């Protein structure tokens, strides 16, 4: 653990600049892009930097909960009870192996909240209101979202100050991104005007391949400084750690995976210090490649730009003009 302590000390150097209660939703409706791995390991890295951090499992799959070593238990107070108003966030808090990391667990019964709340008044504000009393106790509150733009993700985006978008460095990385940005903008225009984009992070990234470099260049062109300098490599330790119920920095602090999330935490803390909470309106022109067809497997790499489909350029993304810039870097 000496190495963790070393990074913790390094991270702690910048942590005093972090305001209390920053809520970061880890969201991408695409499945398997590394949301949970990012939520667990980023939150653990914040905690290792000696800042009080709360991780909230907002996904009925409960992978964050099991990834921190908590067995499935329908009797345990969870995010379901919290969102349904049956328990307070305080009552749902669990301590973890890391002294400064707390968890609000999930259970598969959370899937019912989507239906049970459908007609409820203020249904999108349930999580925000539930977490409000805890905001002063944690420097970071990290929300792991399900792979859907459903009411649970909506609750997370309404509760959040910013969204961190993990994207896999592969051909289809941009698939569906316009839908996510659309949703973020719509929420900003109504339910949560303060919502920003924290950053975009490339996961399972192999920078030795031409394809990965091309995808990175595409994302850089579109997201500009929102794209994290830190990338997360494909690393077996990151995949193994959840089965031991541990964040990677506890399971194997020397692994490339653990190191990358420690660097990511540092980058995010530094971004905070510099006050670069970007909004979608700060992004570059919306690329044609944002359309679901444009970043498609093609012999030479990234496909030439197709038009973004009608309906994905609606009012909610009007601050991100549809453009055909993205494919020019390919
Ligand atoms: P879902 O959409 O189902 O919630 P997710 O976006 O949360 O998925 P993860 O569960 O974090 O994605 O990751 C999907 C799979 O890929 C998991 O088996 C995880 O262990 C593995 N994985 C994630 N990141 C890495 C990585 N950097 N290196 C190796 N394996 C990884
Ligand atoms: Mg997940």
UniProtKB/TrEMBL annotation:
Pfam family, one: AAA_31
Gene3D superfamilies documented for this protein: P-loop containing nucleotide triphosphate hydrolases (3.40.50.300)
Region described as Disordered: 303-330
Residue ranges with Low complexity bias: 303-319
Domain annotation AAA: ranges: 22-196
Domain of life: Bacteria
UniProt xrefs under CDD domains: ParAB_family
Name of the protein in its database record: AAA domain-containing protein
Organism (species): Candidatus Sulfotelmatobacter kueseliae
């Amino acid at each position: 653990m000496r190495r963790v302590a070393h990074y913790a000390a390094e991270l702690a150097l910048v942590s005093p600049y972090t305001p209390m209660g920053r809520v970061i939703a880890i969201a991408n409706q695409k499945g398997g892009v590394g949301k949970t791995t990012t939520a667990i390991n980023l939150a653990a890295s914040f905690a290792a930097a000696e800042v009080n951090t709360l991780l909230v499992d907002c996904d009925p799959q409960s992978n964050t909960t099991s990834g921190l070593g908590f067995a499935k238990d329908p009797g345990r107070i969870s995010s379901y009870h919290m969102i349904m108003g049956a328990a307070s966030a305080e009552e749902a808090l669990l301590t973890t192996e890391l002294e400064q990391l707390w968890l609000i667990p999930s259970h598969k019964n959370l899937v019912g909240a989507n239906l049970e709340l459908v007609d409820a008044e203020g249904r999108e504000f349930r999580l925000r209101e539930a977490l409000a009393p805890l905001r002063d106790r944690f420097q970071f509150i990290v929300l792991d979202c399900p792979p859907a733009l459903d009411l649970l993700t909506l609750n997370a985006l309404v509760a959040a100050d910013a969204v961190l978008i993990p994207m896999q460095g592969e051909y289809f990385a941009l698939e569906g991104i316009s839908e996510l940005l659309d949703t973020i903008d719509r929420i900003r225009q109504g339910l949560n005007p303060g919502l920003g984009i924290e950053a975009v992070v490339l996961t399972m990234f192999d920078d030795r391949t031409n394809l990965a470099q091309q995808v990175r260049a595409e994302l850089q062109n579109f997201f500009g400084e929102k794209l994290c300098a830190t990338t997360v490599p494909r690393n077996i330790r990151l995949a193994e750690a959840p089965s031991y119920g541990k964040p990677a920095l506890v399971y194997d602090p020397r692994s490339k995976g653990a190191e990358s999330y420690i660097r990511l935490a540092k980058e995010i803390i530094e971004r905070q210090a510099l006050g670069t909470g970007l909004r979608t309106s700060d992004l570059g022109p919306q690329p044609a490649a944002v359309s679901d067809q444009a970043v498609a497997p093609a012999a030479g790499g990234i496909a030439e730009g197709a038009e973004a489909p009608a309906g994905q350029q609606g009012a909610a993304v009007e601050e991100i003009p549809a453009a055909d810039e993205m494919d020019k870097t390919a």
